[in-house]
Amino acid sequence: MRIGELAERTGVSERSLRYYEEQGMLSAERTPGGQREYPEAAVARVILVQELYAAGLASRKIAALLPCMREDGGPAEVASPRLVADLQEERARIDRTIADLVRSREVLER
């Protein structure tokens, strides 16, 4: 599929898709005319990237994690103990953020 279709199917701008490619988070074949051609699996990959961004991960961290993740988000066989530690660290950061937000909401409710 071409970049416009991928953008439409994922709700992500073409500019962002090009950025994901530059950062190594997404790959595309090139047609003889130089246009990007994405496989069907790119839809799931873009959605996963968006989920990781929403979790607060930076693009550098996402690019490092993606080769260690299956398309369904589970760990690939090349996942290392360092990857697991990084993900646990990110989860702990998110947990702290959630706790801070809950405390803030409680203050506002009072």
Descriptive account of the structure:
- The protein is built from five helices and two strands.
- It is mainly alpha-helical and 110 residues long.
- It has one domain (3-109): Multidrug-efflux Transporter Regulator, Chain: A, Domain 2.
- The chain has a two-stranded antiparallel ribbon with strand order 1-2.
- Strand 1 (29-30) and strand 2 form a beta hairpin.
- The longest helix has 29 residues, at 81-109.
- The radius of gyration is 17 Å and the shape is globular.
- The chain starts with a helix and ends with a helix.
> Could you name the CATH topology?
Multidrug-efflux Transporter Regulator, Chain: A, Domain 2
Name the quaternary structure: single chain
- Estimate nothing, just give the exact number of structural domains: 1
Percent of residues in β-strands: under 5%
Number of strand segments: 2
Question: What does the main sheet amount to?
Answer: 2 strands, antiparallel
How would the global form be characterised?
A: globular
Under the CATH scheme, the architecture is Orthogonal Bundle
The CATH class label is Mainly Alpha
Mean pLDDT: 89
Descriptive terms for the model:
Multidrug-efflux Transporter Regulator, Chain: A, Domain 2, globular, 5 helices, 110 residues, mainly alpha
What order do the helices and strands come in, and which of them pair?
Layout: H1 3-10, H2 14-22, E1 29-30, E2 36-37, H3 41-54, H4 59-65, H5 81-109
Quick summary:
The chain is 61% helix and 4% strand. The protein has 110 residues and is mainly alpha-helical. It has one domain: Multidrug-efflux Transporter Regulator, Chain: A, Domain 2.
